[in-house]
Amino acid sequence: MEVLVPIADMRQWSRAQLQRGARIGFVPTMGALHAGHLSLVQRARQLADRVVVSIFVNPTQFDNQQDLATYPRTLDEDLALCRQAGVDVVWTPETAEMYPDGYCTFVEMYGPLTDKLCAIARPGHFRGVCTVVTKLLAVVRPDVAIFGQKDLQQALIVSRMVADLNLGVEIVVAPTVRDRDGLALSSRNRRLTPAMRAKALALPRGLELARRAYRGGETESRKLIEIVAEEVLVNEGVDLDYCDVVSLPGFQEAERADDRCVLAAAVFVDGVRLIDHVPLAGEAIPVAIDDDERA
Ligand code: AMP
To answer: What are the chain's domains?
Structure first.
C-alpha cells in the first residue's frame, strides 16, 4: 500500500493507472476510520481494480471551529486498517496545499437538496463538501466513488453535483454500518463517554420506533417526527437538531410518508453531533426496545 501526500504524486499515480486501463474506485474520508468506512472500501474493491482512500479533515466544511479542533485524528490506526482492507493508495493531502494562501474558489449548490436539514443546521457545510469533493475527484480521477447512506443528504448532493458539472464519475451509495446496539458507526462516536453513548442510543431507538409505527400504518409525518423527538428529548443532555421525513429521489419534505421516504435526524449528545438517515421501507435497526412497555 502506498501513502501519498503531495497532490502531484496522487495525480501521477492515477494517470499511470488510467494509462494501464485500470478502473479506480475512490473512498473519500476524514479519517478516524471504522467498519463503516471499511464497508465502502470493500464495495470499491468489488467495483474497481484499484482502491484509493483519501484522509483529509476538510476545514471548509466545518461550521464550528471547536468541532474541527476536536475532530478525532488517528492516522497510524487508519493506515493499518487500510492496509488490512487491501487499499492500494491512502492519500493524505496537506491543508496548506489544498487551500493555499489566495485560495478563492468554492462550489455551491442551490435547490431542494441544500435548503433543509444539515444545509440549514450547518451553514456553509455543503459548500465545503462540494468544494473538497470536486477537488479530490479532479486529482484522483476515479471511475467510481462510494459514499455512505448514513450521510444521505451529502451522498445525494454529491451525485447531483457530479451530474450537473459533468464530472463523469459513478457515485454509489452504500448502506449504513451500525454497532450491535443500533448506533450508526461514526468517527465522532469516539468522543462519546460510556454515559454519553448510552444516551446517544435514543437516536436509533427513536428512529426505529418511528419506522415501526410507519410499518404499523402511521403515515402522518408529523406523528413519526414526534415519536423520534419524544424518545430523544427525555434524555437530559440530548438535544434534537432536526428530524424530518423526506421523499426520494427529490428530497422534498413529505407530509404523508410512503415507502420512498427516509427519516432524517440529527442530535447533539452533550455537544457531540450525530446524524442518521433511515429508509422507512428499509431493514429494522437492531435496538433494544421493551415491547411490553411500548404496547
Ligand atoms: P467521514 O469520514 O465521516 O467524512 O465519512 C466518509 C464516508 O464514510 C462518507 O461517505 C460517510 O457517509 C461514510 N460513512 C460514515 N459512517 C458510515 C457508516 N456507519 N456506514 C457506512 N458509511 C459510513
So the answer is: 2-174 (3.40.50.620), 187-280 (3.30.1300.10)
